[in-house]
Write a structure and sequence with these properties.
Rossmann fold, Serine Threonine Protein Phosphatase 5, Tetratricopeptide repeat, 9 strands, alpha/beta, about 50% helix, about 325 residues, elongated, nine-stranded mixed sheet
């Protein structure tokens, strides 16, 4: 994985041609000064020299977008999509966010992994310090309230999906006997390993992690994670078998008020419809304990409203009672 990070970094910053790189550097300087039109024109000149430079097409697309030249941005992202076999630059998502292609329903693994590998070292400073991120605090408050209401003294085994640098894990640690963290980014895992929060850490994709387990977690959390995963149904279908009967799950979503189940924002994060999310939980067989909307953080000064969920896999006795009713074993 370490070698992949090095390759990715090289891909971002070098075309392999000195002249093309120099023009790209000048384009970045112009973009930093706010002249995105000039930056995009200079980037196009660099790409005439290095036409197969994936990262160059990504830069060009971004400059065109910020200059308001959406058609040119889409053209650049189409070239990018053809060159980027691993999807680390997220061309498919960028096209989908501008109605120029399908987003798909699953996680864009290559893009998310690359994004957080690059972001890991400055993650907490940017998200907490500058964007007012507070999802771990909000989810922890809701989980604590449900523990008190249900008479739960603590959890034996918890799984923190998309653990990042451990912001959620720090909140959970005192409530959990064995705390496991999972993240798709090796760089994020390395950052949180230094804190010593988790009993075990694993680099893995979310659904694959859930599919590998069988009813061993009595708490599962996913703070600001499912916004990169698309449709909820496949995740919830994998989630239930990984939880013990009576176990809790707590997670966040970004929200929208429209009729759509979900849509992809220009930020390349998914927003889920409030009622569609509630319906997905019920269809999955989860008992909704808390379902609230709140401001999760800020993006370019604007508040991002989301959904906070705490749900429960029905306890054995409740499941058995429902089965008896459905089977006609309980008298009317």
């Amino acid at each position: 994985m370490f070698s992949k990070v090095l390759v990715l970094t090289k891909a971002f910053y070098s075309s392999g041609d000195v002249i093309a790189d120099r023009r790209a550097d000048y384009a970045r300087m112009l973009a930093d000064q706010g002249d995105h039109q000039a930056a995009s024109e200079l980037m196009e000149q660099a790409l005439e020299i290095a036409p197969d430079w994936a990262a160059g097409w990504d830069l060009a697309g971004g400059y065109h977008q910020k200059a308001g030249n959406i058609a040119a941005a889409i053209a650049a992202w189409r070239r990018l999509e053809a060159l980027d076999d691993d999807g680390v630059f997220g061309a498919r998502l960028k096209l989908a966010a501008h109605n120029a292609g399908p987003a798909g329903e699953g996680t864009a693994v290559g893009y998310v992994e690359a994004l957080f590998d690059q972001y890991a070292a400055k993650f907490e400073d940017a998200l907490v310090g500058k964007l007012g991120y507070r999802v771990p605090d909000l989810l922890d408050d809701l989980v604590g309230a449900e523990m008190q209401r249900l008479g739960i003294a603590g959890f034996e085994r918890a799984l923190d999906l998309g653990c990042g640098t451990g912001l959620m894990g720090e909140k959970l640690r005192a409530k959990v006997g064995h705390l496991e963290g999972v993240d798709i980014s090796a760089a994020m895992i390395a950052e949180t390993a230094r804190k010593g929060i988790y009993d075990s850490l694993q680099k893995a994709e979310l659904v694959a992690t859930l599919n590998s387990r069988r009813a061993d977690a009595d708490l599962v959390t996913a703070a600001d994670v499912l916004i990169y995963c698309g449709a909820l149904q496949p995740i919830l279908a994998a989630l239930l078998p990984a939880m013990r009967p009576g176990g809790l799950v707590a997670f966040s979503l970004e929200a929208h008020d429209g009729d759509e189940e979900l849509f992809l924002r220009p930020s390349l994060r998914y927003a889920h419809g409030v009622e569609a999310a509630r319906k997905a939980l019920l269809l999955a067989g989860l008992e909704i304990l808390r379902f609230e909307t709140a401001v999760l953080r800020f993006d370019r000064g604007a508040p991002i409203t989301g959904i906070l969920v705490v749900a429960r896999r029905p306890p054995v006795e409740l499941t058995a009672a429902n089965d008896a009713v459905e089977g006609g074993d309980v008298a009317a």
